[in-house]
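User: Predict the structure for this protein chain, please.
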Amino acid sequence: MPRRLLGRRALWALVLGGVLLNAVAFFHAWRFTHFVADDGRKTGSPDS
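Assistant: Here is the predicted structure, written as structure tokens:
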């Protein structure tokens, strides 16, 4: 395999790996910030 083709494939593999890693990080962060189900119940006031 020519050296140039090998370099291009390595570059594309790095780009694809970066995109996939970014997608995993995005969904991980989404789950960390959206972990409460909205069922309408609220915590009572401490005054009552």
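The first helix runs from residue 3 to 33.
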